[in-house]
Amino acid sequence: MATKYDRIAADLRRKIQSGRFGPGEQLPVETALKDEYNVSLLTLRRALDVLEMEGLIEKRHGHGNFVRTRRRRMRRSTDRYQWEKDRALLTEAERRAPGVVERDTGLAHEDLIFDAQFDSTEADEDLADAFGVPVGTPLLRRSYRQQSREEDASLVLSTSYLVRDRIASNPDLLSAANEPWPGGTPHQLYTVGIEIDRIIDEVTARPPSADEADALGIEAGVALIVLRKTSIDTTGQVVEVADVLMAGDRTQLVYTTKLKRWPT
Questions:
Q1: What does the DSSP 8-state code read for residue 26?
Q2: Which of 42, 55, 260, 263 is at a distance of 20 to 30 A from 34, taking alpha carbons?
Q3: What is the pTM of this model?
């Protein structure tokens, strides 16, 4: 059964989504809302907390509650992986067409700010277990940030790991100066003779750290979505491990599982 504050949150949510309260507009003061809904101030504030966690409003201390400008949403589906793998076999001109981030967000390439940082690290117990290599194995760590030019926060934060010895035959893969790479990781691995066979996504959620919240523009109470992506090649060997961080209030993960039909 819906609680009083759930019903208040639902009504205010409808008003925001319908445009009754527009982006940047201040909601009526809390005492007025309390009287309008005939509830206690505590109940009203619980409803407002729900809307804040959903990313619909922001609370400005000493000023009131304001409708947030809606941030760019991301829709990440599993068919992106086949789409990206298919691109690895295209010409360079074709691979330079908009990539997966543009596909996930609907933004044009020129609307995005892209940043890549590469450095060397060693496999800790977590990554050694993920790759099936000894602790201390040299890895290439690649940190990516993508941001809309119209917003002040990143769309996604991604840290990708590759076993250095497996890609060292192509020195171009070791430098961030060659990013964004036309065709992405599937083509990078293709240049050293690796074909990705399957990808495993493991999704969890947790509160963001202060740095993560600042980078992604996450408001108090909004969860961080953590996706561990493991890419496995045609020999069964793990070739890439990536941790992708996304804001829970504007990310949609879509998974479609094809089921075998019963025999007729």
A1: B
A2: 55
A3: 0.82
